[in-house]
Amino acid sequence: MEKTKFLLGEEDTPTHWYNLSADLPGDPLHAALDPATREPLTRAEMAATMPEPLIDQETSTAREIEIPEEVRRVYTLWRPSPLFRAHRLERALDTPARIYYKYEGGAPTGSHKPNTGIPQAYYNKLAGRTGLVTETGAGQWGSAAALGAAFFGMTAKVFMVKVSHQQKPYRRALMETYGSECVASPSTHTAVGRKILADDPDNPGSLGIATSEALETAAEDRSLGYVLGSAANHVLLHQTVIGQEAVRQMELAEDHPDIVIGCAGGGSNLAGLAFPFLGARLRGGRPVRIIAVEPTACPTLTRGTIAYDYADSAGLGPLFRMHTLGHGFVPPPVHAGGLRAHGIGPAVSRAVEDGLIEATAVGQVACLEAGVRFARTEGILPAPESTHAVRVAIDEALRCREEGRSRAILFGLSGHGHFDLAAYQKYAAGGLTDGEADSHGLAVAAAGIPVAGVA
């Protein structure tokens, strides 16, 4: 029989996280800036919201950082995750391409997010925090933060982007089942939220707004640790367990990816899968082409500006040097809520800027079409975010067919779509649109990027 699954044992769970900063050519990543002084953040300023070990990880240039034993024990509930060869999809496409996918949907919350939710909860617990506060788009990260809080005996408050709060009630129910409070953002719980609602009662919300509400809440209650699900260096670091496992599993398959594909919002899923392969390439290893796929509704990498900008809409947090659409940008309410981030992680942004990763944007309808095709051949219903990677993997496989070339394609299936059936129902009914970002809205948001911080 043809081999379909490439599995590792619990004893093969990675012992260290991989840090791309050690292998990036050129100058180190730029430090985040204090919003008041526009000077690089000091360690003391970072400590206001981050435990000391996470500050170490955020600023480290060491290639490997040890994973605490207690975190590794929790990881083994779902790690190592399986790598699949998509034989049925290959045959359906009549392609000579060899298609593989790394599946993160077996985690308790159904996506890759607990890979960082668990360590962040662990470090905040050690620091004496009794609760967590965060923002979430589609709810995958909010679910992971809620899970981490439950595992370490903490409370959690999650500000969920309003449109996703309405689209995905069962994500909200999952967070509440774990014992967390889930609030639609913008909300009346914060000054930021009240101001936005006063100006626009029907505001659909954005990750930037939800982040502002979470930061304001953390600033007012020092018993709460602020945690985040993407973009930051330490978050991307935690996710590299995905790629490290995939490297070993591709060896089990006696193959090596020519192309690695990941959906990209804040950057955690993409970095988690791709950074270990990219790092090996930068150290003189085999070549690999890496593709970041984002929605046309929020085209951060393909239409954004490289600048210092806020990660949150109200400008309460630091400024990061990154591809950004402007912290005031509110994307159309597409179903891939986890990809509706106006800015992307500085490490991913730098890799794209240096030509180490290429970026492309695709529409929601084509992505859901690919998700349905994948489900009917491979049996797994992908999350709307993951369908962006599926779409481009299929397109690359079809290109292999046109060129008569066999390439190995590896993509990240970052989570299942069991909480996202409303999106598939709407697609089946023909009621789905791409919801592309309009040029006027992009121009207005870009004008709000801090002038003094332009890179």
Automatic annotation (TrEMBL):
Its EC number is 4.2.1.20. It is an enzyme of class 4 (lyase). It comes from the Bacteria. It catalyses: (1S,2R)-1-C-(indol-3-yl)glycerol 3-phosphate + L-serine = D-glyceraldehyde 3-phosphate + L-tryptophan + H2O. Keywords: Amino-acid biosynthesis, Aromatic amino acid biosynthesis, Lyase, Pyridoxal phosphate, Tryptophan biosynthesis. Pathway: Amino-acid biosynthesis; L-tryptophan biosynthesis; L-tryptophan from chorismate: step 5/5. Tetramer of two alpha and two beta chains. Belongs to the TrpB family. The beta subunit is responsible for the synthesis of L-tryptophan from indole and L-serine. PANTHER family: TRYPTOPHAN SYNTHASE, TRYPTOPHAN SYNTHASE-RELATED. This is tryptophan synthase. It comes from Streptomyces ortus.
